[in-house]
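Reading a protein record of the kind used here takes only a little practice. The integers have meaning only within a learned vocabulary of local backbone shapes. With that in mind, consider the following protein and its fold in token form:
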Amino acid sequence: MTVASALVRLPSSSPHTKFVPVPVPTFVPKVGDVGNVGDLDDGITVALGQTPAFQFERGGYTLSGITVDARTGHPLGGISVWVTLPPVLGRPTAPALRSVSTLDGTFAFLHLAAGAYNLAAARYYILNGQQFIYPEVVRSDVRVPLSPHVALQLALQPQIAPGQRSASMGVARNLIMLDLSGIYAESWFDDPALQGYARNMRELASSGARAVNLVAPYGWHPADQYALLSGSYPAWRVYDPWPYGVAWGRPDGIDIPFWYNADPAALTFGQESLFDVARAYGMSTAALGGPQYALSDVSTRGVQTAQVGLTFDSASWLATAQRLIETMANNPNGFVFYSELDPPFGSAAASGAAPDAPGGAYARAMQADDELVDLLRNWLASQHLLSQTLLLVTASEAQINETVYDNYYGMGPDGRGSSLHVPFVLAGEGVRPGAVDAQIVSSFAIAATALRGLCLPAPASSRAQTLTILFDNHCP
């Protein structure tokens, strides 16, 4: 496998920032669970560096403009801007291109083909001490080439950042989210063949609360990680109905036809994420990525990040997680820490073994996750942080191994259904012990529920209701 080198910011006891080159694996395209021309799923088989079809065509044009404050008219820098083709029934959509406006507000996309485009722009972090964030705006009336007499302007409405948190009795100060890559809920709680591999997770669930029918809309990691952290798929990226004209929200009320179609190295939120909400209230934020996907598919602008190496190692993960948490622990407003737990395990499809085979690769990976949950809890207790911290364990990638066992990956072999029974366990201050939410809910609810545990508002574009049944605390 070829690797690229990335500069990753690591925590350090030194007052000087260290930038350490870390090998990052080249993204390997996957074959999806829904077939199309050539048996490749256009929404999944996207390699690093792939150029959208609408770029670099003969007679290419430049699309440039400026981002401004709608109230004052002043230029805005640091605004993320996306350009994409409107979706067309019967035709696969192309990856979006992303740019960031300069300090004078200008942005540009080069070598575009003539045609109609969608533009979106947003900034959900505070820049240079400005106390405003800028919720997303979308324009769908942009034609290339632009008229020579037209100056393209994206005007964003300022929104005052909320400021610091107010301390409340019975409300946790911190939040830790552990994302179990590809672990499905039945293996933790309902599969008798795997009960011995889940002792710590089951104990955590018994001390806290649990949702038993959490449904992931699709099952592909970057798209579902987006949904986990923002509460929705991106508003600027509508679903792609090709090649199946399945109506939005059918057949199970979840947006199953959505195919992300984007370069995993360039994915950035166009919507507010839980990181953005936390930072707006003065909280510290950090994220620790696994070896399979770069953290660029998380909203990490302004978030302290680190990435594990080419192979997941439990000891290294724990040490890095501890260092990141230590850098944030003294913030009186608290912190939010997100991390993937991604121990390797082989494909059940390749081995011919069922995913729940006792002693198999899946079971061993599951046990490694279970042990890390316990080690992290013990360390938090030793640092006097456990009683102040909500611990949320879930999975963004839904169910793994890309097999048809139990119809449990993506849309399944018949092109219908969803990735069912994603694990969701929440424990800590303000959580109702033994509470169980048994209704069928979308994983879009995760971001809103996580922030409800901190008595903070849900991200702006969250689509699902908070699972309030899980809480004892009363937010003002």
